[in-house]
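Worked problem 6 (solution included).
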Amino acid sequence: MSGLRTYVALLTFLGSYLVLTVIGNLLYFTDLGDTIGEHAIKGFSIGNFAHAGSPGYWSLLLLPFILTPPIVVLVRHFAAPLAPITAIPSMSKATYALLLAMLYAYAAFALWNADAARLLLHPGNYAGALDNRFRLIALLGFWPQVVIKSVLFSLSIYGLIESLMQRDLFWKIATAFNLIAMSAILILLNMKWPLVLFYVAHFIAILMFAKRPVLPATLFATMTFVSYFLISLMLLRVTSGPATIAVNEISRPIATTTKQDAPKQETINRVTIVDGLLLSANAVINRMAQPFPFYFEIFSQSPHQCGSLLGRILRRQSPCQPSNVVYAAMFSDRFSGEGTAPQPPHVTGFAIQGWSGALIEITLTSIVLGLFAAVSGGAGALQATISVMGAVTGYFYSQLPFEGPIIYDHGVLWWGAPLLLYGLYGRVATK
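Solution. The predicted structure is:
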């Protein structure tokens, strides 16, 4: 179990990438591939992509499995002296309770002020639900989402780990409260992944730190599975009546697609429960796997159209964002220009700067995962929380560009920086 704890960020990254991106791309080359892909885009076929199946295609797809493990092991070896930095004193019950009270009050006020409950429940169809999701994100703003997705998320994991490590009624009550309160708040965000990931993080924490993990781990695995489909059905606005399901249609091979030939999308009005379950199940395969051949095809044909990595570092205006470009190529709908189809760091790096970009981004990602491996060996609850949140970061790296898991509203920066500041304060206070 010590090896799992040390490399949990790496294993989560590779495991999530394998399940969400690699398996789907392997299936696209089988007899079932077109059928699977057409559940998301009518007319989708891997044969429409001129570069699909080339040596470069497979090399980019499998690059993380080749480069990331040795880099992580190497970084962990050289960064081992950093481990004492995370030897942070545990948080007092009073401090924890005060933080929770303030942060939950702030989150609740922000959600109330954004009218989150009405935006979640009122639209009668999927298109309206999507509109309300974008409206809610705009009304909430950045910082309330940071508090919910990063700070309260990590504090909830910390409370769970304290309850697993010591027999104390306070931490058990806090864990139960967090589970209920965070579930309600994350549902109000009108998105699947925050709630599902919250339960997955609990599952990982229990698996690594519970004395008897089988029963509670099974419970949270079940909660993860059930919540994914229930939230999906709610967001799809399922009905028992006749269904009208969206069709994203590609009329000719992507290599020759022009703006006039762009995919056409019908509006979703009604979705039956059966159709909703099928759409949700296929989304697990297609959501991250399907953009990959688009990325490789588009940016093999037109490299550097979205600037360069150096330009991004220097904060120069980028001509475009790869995720927006690919979304527009996949779907022709009113979210074109806003909608994104993100991919992991090495694929995003390839889109921006070709193979050099892919190698730079996967190396930087591997360094971050190696740092998590270096500091994940401590025995305290806060160190254990870092391990679990490292797994969460690994999951985000399986589907976002390099900067995403660091500075987005769920990023490492927002829970890691306060944790380090608290550790420094604790060290000074105890001297």
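Discussion: The first strand starts at residue 238 and ends at 239.
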